[in-house]
Prior knowledge:
The chain has ten helices and 20 strands. It has helices at about 70-80, 100-115, 145-155, 170-180, 195-200, 225-230, 250-255, 310-320, 325-330, 330-335; strands spanning about 5-10, 15-25, 30-35, 40-50, 50-55, 60, 65, 85-95, 120-125, 160-165, 185, 205-210, 235-240, 265, 280, 285-290, 295, 355-360, 365-370, 370-375. Strand 15 (about 280) and strand 16 (about 285-290) form a beta hairpin. Helix 5 packs across helix 6 (about 225-230) and helix 8 (about 310-320) packs across helix 9 (about 325-330). The longest helix is centred in the N-terminal third of the chain and has 16 residues, at about 100-115. It is globular, with a radius of gyration of 20 Å.
Amino acid sequence: MTSLRLHVHQLFDGQQVLDHQVLTVTDGTITAIDNDTSNADDVISAFVVPGFIDLQVNGGGGVLFNDSPSLEKLTTIIAAHHQFGTTGMLPTLITDKIEVMEQAADAMAAAIRSKVPGILGIHFEGPHLSVAKKGTHAEEYIRPISDREWQVLSRKDIGQILVTLAPETVSVADIHRMVSLGIKVCLGHTNADYPTAQAAIDAGADGFTHLYNAMSPIQGREPGVTGCALLNDHASCGIIIDGHHVDYTAAKLALKTKPKGKVFLVTDAMSTIGTNQTEFSFFDRTVYLRDGRLTSTTGELAGAALDMISAVNNSHHGLDISFEEAVRMASKYPANYINQSGIRGELKVGQAADFLVLNQEHQVISTWVAGKPVYNA
């Protein structure tokens, strides 16, 4: 058992900002927080905040998870995102062949066995989606659920599973079955009407993927999936705050409508994160990065060139919320959604020592996972 006492000049613990606190970290967990600075092992003379948790990450470091999923590629992806404050993630597999889903599950199991820092589980975005709202997903791989998919979804060695599905393509019974397996079910890439979406929520789905994007909009005579997302107080919504996917006013409306804690930040990041990459191949298309926006040759947005610290700063400045609330949207709230409350997402005794050191411009100086630095600027 090894302990480290860190004298932090300014600490945001997820609730309040405190000056001159000493974090005691023992075997990756915070075991004490006090103000006895006389016997600290090291000093962090900057601003420390909880690490970010990203539940929708398609790639990074020049790698897309879909491209031959492996332990090596997962390690590359999360290392790229460590630079921008992500300490926990659900690597996301976009709609693909069942063989790729199986490879991804095997890679995830290997990452968890190897204790790759920050890998918490896997997000299957598809393949049970609406063709009408497929976005950049490959139509040829959109399909009904099969026994082979159930074999993947029933695995217990791949961490927390999150599934994005269109409720018009998956039965209420199947949604209930997923929830009974411990899967978090989010509605997305869906053109469902309000009653169909609400039936899925009643069956146990409790999330919405990239709010406003690739879902039937709210209208006066048909509330759609967007209306369902805004009306159900207990359901959480991921949102992409990059200035391209969602207008800031629409995002403010979501924050005003939803209870506090029920909107969390995601990046929907592609392979460009942490690289100078300006284009990449994606199935049978090419995706180009122009002015911070990723666009496919077929015209639609293709994920995002967004990292978590940018999402936090965009939210602070664009949504008129405090920096601390923006941090909660990237740490506490996504942790709560995947049932990690009390485990990570805040800096409190008993929680994982996953935190960031930020400079005065709120950029990442260093990233720590389980009490160890995984990135230094």
